[in-house]
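re the bet — no i am not wrong, look at it urself. input seq straight from the record:
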Amino acid sequence: MTYINDPREPQEEIVEQTPARIRVVRVVNALVHAVCWVFALVLIVHILLVFGEANPGNGFAQLIDGWSRGVSLGLRNLFTPDGVKLRTLLNDGLAALLWLIIGGVVTDLVTRIGLPGPKRVWYRRTLS
């Protein structure tokens, strides 16, 4: 009688083989995703500081304001309502949303270009 886990019988194991190309695409996508999210978070923190009426002379507020100017995609004066809070919400909110869209599009393009073939390679090997 043969048992399912008989040590005398050769056993098979399914192994996922990850080529270097897939690892590179995953790392690049993770970096792009992280950078775009950091830019969006900087813009969101700037919106929160403006809504909270943070002291513009504070070092942290100045740092976030400077970073948000750098990552605002030129949208700082796209909408010009009278209130500074609404202006910041519209302009920086749109820029944050665009950063998230840009991140999604770039990671999709990197995946499509970097992985034109099958995304996973499976094979069976006999264990002895």
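see?? The chain has a mean pLDDT of 86. told u. also The helical segments are 20-51, 59-70, 84-114. so pay up
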